[in-house]
Amino acid sequence: MYKTTGFFSFVLRRVTGVALALYLFLHMWVIGSVNQGAEAFDARLATVQSPLFKFLEIALLAAVIYHAIDGIRLLIVHYFDVAEYRKSLFYAVMVVSVLLGIAGGLPMLLFAINGG
Amino acid sequence: MTDTNVITHDVIVVGAGLAGTWAALAAGREGVTDIGVLSKLHPLRSHSGAAQGGIAAALNNVRPVADTGPRGPLEPIPVGDEPVDSWELHMFDTIKGSDWLGDQDAIEVLVKEAPEIIYEYEHMGCVFSRLPDGRIAQRRFGGHSAPRANYSADYTGHVLLHTIHEQALRHGVKFYPEWYCMDLIIEDNVCRGVVAMDVLTGKLYTMRAKAVMFGTGGYGRAWKITSNATANTGDGVAIAYNAGVPLMDMEFVQFHPTGLYGKGILMSEACRGEGGYLRNGDGDRFMEKYASGLMELAPRDLVSRSEQTEIEEGRGVGDDKQGIYLDMTHLGAEKILSRLPQVRELALEFLGVDIIHEPVPIQPTAHYSMGGIPANADGQVIADGDGTPVVGFYAAGECACVSVHGANRLGTNSLLGASLFGRRAGKSIAKFIKDGAELAPISGDPTQKHEARIQHLMSGPTDKKESVAQIAAELKETMTKNCGVFRTEERLQKALQDIKQLQERFKNARVMDTSRRFNTDLLGAIETEHLLTFSEVIVASGLNRQESRGAHFRTDFAKRDDEKWLKHTMAYKNGDDGPKLGYKSVNIDWEKYPPQERKY
Amino acid sequence: MATNGTSKTAVIRIQKFNPDKDKKPYLKEYTVTVTPDTTILDALEEIKATQDGTLTFRRSCRHAICGSCAMNVNGHNTLVCNQRVNAHLDKKGMITVRPLPYLPIVKDMVVDRTSFWDQYQRIKPWLVPPEDVPETEFRMTPEEVKALNDAEKCIMCGACYSACTVTAMNKSYIGPHALLKASLRIQDPRDSITDERLVEISGADGAYRCHTIFNCIDACPKNLNPTQAIETLRKLAQKRAAYVDARKERQKTL
Amino acid sequence: MRITPTRIFQIQRISAIALLVFMTTHMVVVHYPPMHIDFSQIIVRMGEPIWKVIDILFLLSVLTHALAGMYMVLTDLQKIGPYRQALGWIAVVLFVVFFAYGTKTIIAFQPPV
Ligand SMILES: Cc1cc2nc3c(=O)[nH]c(=O)nc-3n(C[C@H](O)[C@H](O)[C@H](O)COP(=O)(O)OP(=O)(O)OC[C@H]3O[C@@H](n4cnc5c(N)ncnc54)[C@H](O)[C@@H]3O)c2cc1C
Ligand code: HEM
Ligand code: SF4
Ligand code: F3S
Ligand code: FES
């Protein structure tokens, strides 16, 4: 593959996008059971409350954050003539994503470890 | 001939530069539908695309600001004001530039139709640089007494080539990209087609046609220091010569004054057109000594000789003192970036010199070939000094010699010539076809000879094998040393001897690549054979012409000699002996444009 | 030669492949002597002349204007005629040269650019002038010309096309080179089929297929910016009717 | 209304902007601060009409965005070429099904007495 920062961000965006889409359907399946009463809901919720899923949830947050920030980058590129700053923009997205990821993920991680 | 290797078209055009493409488009517009254009390169790779400076036509869009001298600033001519330029002036400049060897009837056609060609390019989408009011911008060029170079920054040829190629596509012209023409079939003075190789497969084809047109471009590749592309190996001229067509005025080869030092890559004349200076090793603007009027904007032959004189007298620059400085540091970054962006990049990339801040070392470089396949203003190739046409064979562009450039071409006149005579050739081909031209029969299978040639190059005795690359390198060495800016009997004799020996050695040359698929090694060998063929004609014609005229400068006959030499050289192939030389008279209007001394 | 300074040896690793003979591409090393101003093309020519005549590559102009010599050097697409060997040597004093990626290989560095040219033709690269043309030139302002300059400089080398991840996946994508060309015609006030062009480039294979990967800019040896041209096309396509009307008005005053 | 690539692009971008708002809200309110999610909390929030409206809009934008995105991902592949049209319809059907299912979940929800 022809590797550049642009390619890297494209792959990340695509992987996170598809992952989020798949998660969305799973999510709707879980939430959909609220109408079948508390038991059904809790049962489904239980499957997604295992420690594994806690970590997955952190990954999910990271994915959303990266995908969203990168999406903002694309919007900027569309509306402003900034292609020449593409490398800086990429690094900016990475930095912001990591910072937001830490801010959001760390408490979740602690919560998951301490078991709430 | 088997059916599988015969292709038939009404018209076959060889070469897809400006000349060839214009011919195909013009013939197509006149209603000829069955046209095949072959080119050994993809059409957009043709060397026309490398032209930088501009294309001439007296449009009268700008004029020099009054009383500022020949190098002063330019201003737009307000609409309604007196024009400063005219086709007559353009004509006189061209004749003077040609050192009176140009045929004046053809020159008149050239300069009169010039504006039409420019406007047509413009209407077809060519992006010219503009004046604030929307008209096409113009700049000065060497040897032109008025600013009449129309341009697109410094990639004019590129823009013209893309424009015309796209229009040909629009018109549905059929291209054969990467097909190599190997031979021209002429029997009884009637042209019947060509032999060509599909480079991809290595297969040979007989291509039959009612008319064949050559627009195969220049042949500066016989020199070591050259501005020409590696494809400019003069295939067309060599093939035509081998097929019995004479070659005209081959001794006239233009050396451009500003090739990048050691590389030959062109620094456009626009550098000087925009106000650049030439300086020698002492920092002097030496052109003062040689052409105090036009200075750096004197015609190319004169400037190149001036540089070479400075170099030979020890005032050169660079490691081996073989260069001269082209100084544009006073032009300012803005002008350089908007008018000469490509030139700046070239100097940066190849020599690491930023022309905004430093002068760049340059040297004369083999650039343009005035001679070639003799043709009249309708593109018809002529077979002898009386102007008898070869039936169905046409030529235009740099491979042809319509003789508008005579002994020295003015910058910007060749893009014009290639376009305009290409178009005219296309029109006259269309007329020829519509008047009922017929497909002439071909005797035997003309591909066989070339199949044998290929087999020979790929096999045979390996013990005394010669390297093609070595032979080509030695040819370039001797041409640069002995057939360059300054020539003498002695030097030319030496070159002739060397060429003869190299031709002999070539018989034992073998290629390293013996596969048929995309064999550039094989093509290189065939091209080298072509170089050897036409170089001999150049040297022999130069030896014969005992005078100095335009680009042909003999230190042993330093004066122009109209009495004896106001005539074109015609070189005919004469078996394996050197060319047989004859002459053709120059068309001159003795009333209006009698020969004068050429001073700038 | 002239300004050459000291010479040294460099190793050029070249990917060789002749489909008639070889099962798959392989790398071969050649050692050449270079000076600071030896270009990669010079080195290839040297190898072909003296070491391996079968080495096959395209080239012509030697100064970055004909578009023949685009190749992949150390993983990046570039022209080789304007790149000096010294600038690309890696830590081991080596350069790796491969053909343009994602295109069928004809032989060694020569790739089959058929899909590239097909896409170029598909967008109708030619200008279609209005019915009545003036006697002299159309009056275009220097600003209008400036907007076209970038696209007009494209030498159709294919470096961008071959670097683009989308064309790697899908050859029916019009591609950065052709979209750049389309943007030239669409922004040219002289063109009269703006509407048709906008419809074509906003189709399923057009400007919206681009995922703003920027490889095209990274690869372009002429420093052009196909991505921005594509963004411009997307914007124009979204207000197609208004833009076409404005064009028509402008054409009346040409 | 014909579904053209221009529209898909616009949908993708507009839904992306909408998602920026909804997603942030959603993440902050539902998944963060990190606390144990249980039935009662969800029930309380989901019962309020204003949240029902927000959730439906969120559902709308996330579904269009995700389906348009998946459509683009798949149609990027050469092999999918001939099936682009069919794929488009599948996306529309999926949209209708999931939107109906999701909306039903949101609207039909009644806080238990
Ligand atoms: C660096 C440079 C700058 C220049 N700048 C200017 C300028 O500013 N102004 C100006 O007026 N002139 C300029 N010139 C000169 C001018 O560009 C050329 O004279 C002109 O473009 C020649 O056009 P052409 O159509 O004859 O040939 P080309 O454009 O060279 O085309 C030749 C065609 O023939 C084909 N061909 C050749 N041999 C074969 C074969 N055996 N089989 C099949 N096809 C073959 C090639 O593939 C090519 O398509 C410049 C020249 C150079 C070298
Ligand atoms: C939170 C704000 C979000 C923003 C700003 C955003 C932005 C974008 C943008 C601009 C694209 C277009 C990419 C392209 O054209 O190449 C895109 C693609 C995509 N998005 Fe989002 N998105 C967001 C959330 C989501 C969510 C929640 C999902 C999943 C449910 C999702 C799934 C996808 C998918 C599948 C793609 C296609 C991937 C691709 O084309 O590479 N996005 N997103
Ligand atoms: S845009 Fe650049 S990389 Fe692409 S073809 Fe044109 S010049 Fe080559
Ligand atoms: S690399 Fe390809 S995806 Fe777009 S930005 Fe360039 S065309
Ligand atoms: S040889 Fe022409 S672009 Fe490199």
What features would you highlight for this structure?
heterotetramer; A: mainly alpha; 3 helical TM bundles of succinate and fumarate reductases; 4 helices; D: 113 residues; mainly alpha; binds flavin-adenine dinucleotide; binds protoporphyrin IX containing FE; binds iron/sulfur cluster; binds FE3-S4 cluster
Secondary-structure class of chain B: alpha/beta
Q: Termini of chain B, distance in Å?
A: 58 Å
Low-confidence stretches of chain B: none
Q: Provide a count of the helices of chain B.
A: 16
The pLDDT mean of chain B sits at 95
Tell how many strands the DSSP assignment of chain B holds. 24
CATH superfamily of chain D: Fumarate reductase/succinate dehydrogenase, transmembrane subunit
Question: Could you explain the architecture of this structure?
Answer:
The complex is a heterotetramer of chains A (116), B (600), C (254) and D (113). With 116 residues, chain A is an all-alpha fold. Chain A has a single domain (5-113), classed as 3 helical TM bundles of succinate and fumarate reductases (Up-down Bundle), CATH 1.20.1300. Chain A contains four helices and no strands. The mean pLDDT of chain A is 85. Helix content of chain B is 34%, strand content 20%. In chain B, the strands form seven sheets. In chain B, strands 1, 2, 8, 9, 10, 11, 18 and 19 form an eight-stranded mixed β-sheet that branches. A four-stranded antiparallel β-sheet of chain B has the order 13-16-15-14. The radius of gyration of chain B is 23 Å and the shape is globular. The mean pLDDT of chain B is 95. With 254 residues, chain C is of the alpha+beta class. Chain C has two domains: 3-110, Roll (Ubiquitin-like (UB roll)); 114-251, Fumarate Reductase Iron-sulfur Protein, Chain B, domain 2 (Orthogonal Bundle). Chain C starts with 7 loop residues before the first strand and ends with a helix. Chain D has one domain: 3 helical TM bundles of succinate and fumarate reductases, CATH 1.20.1300.10. Chain D is built from four helices and no strands. In chain D, helix 1 crosses helix 3 (49-75) and helix 3 packs antiparallel against helix 4. The model of chain D has no long low-confidence stretch (mean pLDDT 85). Chains in contact: A-C, A-D, B-C, C-D. Chain A binds chain D through residues 14, 17-18, 20-21, 24-25, 28, 31-32, 34-35, 38, 41-42, 45, 49, 57, 61, 64, 68, 71-72, 75, 78, 104, 107-108, 110-112, 116, and chain D through 13, 16-17, 19-20, 23, 27, 31-37, 39, 42-43, 46, 62-63, 66-67, 69-70, 73, 98, 101-102, 104-105, 108-109, 112. The structure holds flavin-adenine dinucleotide, protoporphyrin IX containing FE, iron/sulfur cluster, FE3-S4 cluster and FE2/S2 (inorganic) cluster. FE3-S4 cluster binds at residues 164, 166, 176, 210-216, 226-227, 230 of chain C.
